[in-house]
Sequence to fold (433 residues):
Amino acid sequence: MRMVDLIQKKRNGKALTSEEIQFFVDGYTNGDIPDYQASALLMAIYFKGMTSEETAILTQAMVDSGETIDLSQIKGNIVDKHSTGGVGDKTTFIIGPLVASVGVPVAKMSGRGLGHTGGTLDKLEAIEGFNASLSKEQFIQNVNIYKLAVAGQTGNLAPADKKLYSLRDVTATVDSIPLIASSIMSKKLACGADNIVLDVKTGSGAFMKSLEESEALANEMAAIGKNLGKKIVAVISDMNQPLGYEVGNANEIKEAAEILKGKRVEDLRILSLEIASHMAVMAGAYSNYRRAYHELEKNLENGRAFLAFKSFIEAQGGNVERIENLHTLPNAKYHIEVKSDKNGYVSAIDAESIGLAAMLLGAGRATKEDEINHGVGITLKKKTGDKVTMDETICILHSDDETPEEAIKKAAGAFCFSNQPPSPAKVIHKVIT
Ligand code: URA
Fold:
C-alpha cells in the first residue's frame, strides 16, 4: 500500500477502506509515514469528509494505537460524560455525585486545562489535599465503594490522536467534523467507557458556534458510538454565556457545592439534571427519563447528592471542611466590581471573553508549565435577560493584583446590552439519542 494512493483516493472524494485507514494510523504513529503526507491526507479529509463508517474505523484505529483502560472490575453499569468544553462548566462536580447518589458508578478520567480556566482536575485541586493521582487499583476500589472517582489519565492512551491532533493544530485541519468526532471519541473509548452522555456545547463560547455545526458533531459522535456498539446520548447545550455565575477554580467548586446543597441556579441545575438523568437511565437505574429526573432532583434537595460529593472528596484526600464551609476555599486578595455604563437589559455575555479575563487573572494556563491560581476568578452578577441600571455591578473580578486592567477591560467588554428584553436564553437546544 502507498500513502500517495490513499491521499489521491480521498482527494477524489472516495471512501477509504478499513485496511487503508489502519495503514495510515499505524504508519503515522510509528513514524513510517512523514508529516507532509499525513498533512495532505488530513487536508483531503477536511475538504471531502468521511462516511460514518470511515470515521468509526478511524476512531477504533486510534483507540488501538495505545493502551486501553480495563474497568471490568467495577461492579454495575458504568457511565461516563464528556463535555466539548465551555466557560463556567462545573457540571462534572454536580453530575458525578448526583449519579453516584442513586448507586450508579461513575469512573471519570480527566485532564488538565489549557486555556480559559483550569480543567476538571485543576478545579478539584482547589480543595486542599485532593489527590487526582490514583493508581488503577485505588481508582477501581474507590468507584466500587463510593460510586465515584476522578483521576488523571495515566498510560499511553490513543497516541495516534495525540500525534494527529498536534499536526492538525499547525495545518489548519482542526475544525473538521469527522476529525474532531474521532479525536474526542478515541480518548473516551480508550478510557473504557461503554455508555457515554456527550454534552456538545453550541454558541459564542463553544468550539462549534452554530447549532447546525454542533448538531453535525453530535450526530457524528453518536454514529461512531453506534458503529462501535456503545450507547451514546448527546445533549446540545447553550454556551452563548457562561454556565452559572462563577468562573475560576475555587469559584466553580463553590457553586457546584451550593447546587448540591439545593441552591437553584437555573441553567446549571437544569443541564446537570438533564445529563445525570440520561446517565441514570443508560445505566439501568430507572426505566425512563422522567422518573430518573424526579428521583435525582429529590437527591439535590434531601442532601444525598452533597453527601456523595463529600464522601468522594474525602476518599481522595480532600479536606471536607473546605466544602462544608465554602468560605474556607482559596480566595483572592482583591474583589473588583465592574459596573454597567448603560441602562437596559443584558442581551449577551461573550463566554470566551469571560474565560480569557479569568485566564488573565491566573485561573487558567497559557502554557503547560504555568501554575494555576485557585483563588482567582469572576462572579457574574448579571446574566442574559437581566435588567441593569447605569453603575450597577455586572461582575466581580477576584484578583491577587489590585488593578488587573486588561482583565477588567476584557470582562466589561463581554457584556452586550439592549433597550428591549432579549428572547429567553435556552439551556438545552436538542437531545440526540
Ligand atoms: N477536542 C479534542 O479532543 N479533539 C479535537 O479534535 C477537538 C477538540
User: Anything to note?
Assistant: The chain is about 45% helix and 15% strand. The first strand starts at residue 79 and ends at 83.
